[in-house]
Amino acid sequence: xxxxxxxxxxxxxxxxxxxxxxxxxxxxxxxxxxxxxxxxxxxxxxxxxxxxxxxxxxxxxxxxxxxxxxxxxxxxxxxxxxxxxxxx
Length: 88
What we know:
By secondary structure, this protein is mainly alpha-helical. It has 2 domains: 1-33; 34-65. The protein has helices at 2-26, 29-32, 36-78. It is rod-shaped. The protein starts with a helix and ends in a 10-residue tail after the last helix.
């Protein structure tokens, strides 16, 4: 039981030293946590969303162009000849 209390005390002292060292190196906790962290996430999300949207638009455009070309080539092959017919 005494060893467990000693272990808890040593662990608490170690954590306190780590916190003091971090405060000395990086400043207070409210100074370290800035709005920029969330702005980076927001900007990254917007960039990813824009890339996904551009990909969807590109795929849609390419599929429409290919469908138009397929329809055009099938209509050219099945269209009746419009050449001059000689009157009898």
